[in-house]
């Protein structure tokens, strides 16, 4: 079975390194699927989930707040602004981040403040959705 190497890094450090049979990422223009020997690609990422299907059949889920995706035929590199592994997901902190973003959005006085608050709101909402999907249908 063909494989592709995946490196996911953020400002906090190395998040994941390993082999995959398929990678899905939230590109700016929509989700992209990357298989081994994919043609080269460089695109920005929007807040969302990078899914890595390992050769053993496991699917790893990592939330990214945005960043850059670089694809080479045998290598996928995700340079995330911030990243969160599924095992580290915490609903309370995700909800707090969304509430903080809502407060900043309501208090924005300049166009720059408004644009920044809107971006924070998009990121916080995507993070909360990620956490809630991991926890299951009870939310």
UniProtKB/TrEMBL annotation:
Coiled-coil segments on the chain, per record: 98-134
Chief localization: membrane
Gene3D superfamilies xrefs: F0F1 ATP synthase delta/epsilon subunit, N-terminal (2.60.15.10)
GO terms of molecular function: ATP binding; proton-transporting ATP synthase activity, rotational mechanism
Topology versus the membrane: Peripheral membrane protein
Residues in ATP synthase F1 complex delta/epsilon subunit N-terminal domain copies: 4-83
Subcellular location: Cell membrane
Domain of life: Bacteria
Spans traversing the lipid bilayer: none
Domain ATP synthase epsilon subunit C-terminal: 90-129
SUPFAM superfamilies linked to this entry: Epsilon subunit of F1F0-ATP synthase C-terminal domain, Epsilon subunit of F1F0-ATP synthase N-terminal domain
Keywords linked to the UniProt accession: ATP synthesis, Cell membrane, CF(1), Coiled coil, Hydrogen ion transport, Ion transport, Membrane, Transport
Quaternary structure note: F-type ATPases have 2 components, CF(1) - the catalytic core - and CF(0) - the membrane proton channel. CF(1) has five subunits: alpha(3), beta(3), gamma(1), delta(1), epsilon(1). CF(0) has three main subunits: a, b and c.
Record-stated family: Belongs to the ATPase epsilon chain family.
Record's function text: Produces ATP from ADP in the presence of a proton gradient across the membrane.
Name of the protein in question: ATP synthase epsilon chain
Organism, as annotated: Hydrocarboniphaga daqingensis
Organism classification: Bacteria, Pseudomonadati, Pseudomonadota, Gammaproteobacteria, Nevskiales
């Amino acid at each position: 079975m063909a494989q592709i190497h995946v490196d996911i890094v953020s400002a906090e450090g190395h998040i994941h390194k390993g082999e995959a049979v398929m990678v899905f990422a939230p590109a700016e223009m929509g989700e992209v699927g990357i298989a081994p020997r994919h043609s080269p690609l460089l695109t920005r990422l929007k807040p969302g989930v990078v899914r890595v299907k390992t050769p053993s059949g496991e699917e790893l889920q990592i939330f990214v707040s945005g960043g850059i995706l670089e694809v080479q035929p045998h290598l996928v590199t995700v340079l995330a602004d911030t990243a969160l592994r599924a095992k580290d997901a915490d609903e309370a902190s995700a909800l707090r981040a969304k509430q903080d973003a809502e407060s900043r959005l309501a208090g924005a006085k300049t166009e720059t403040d408004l644009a920044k608050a809107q971006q924070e709101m998009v990121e916080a909402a995507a993070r909360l959705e990620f956490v809630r999907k991991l926890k299951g249908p009870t939310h």
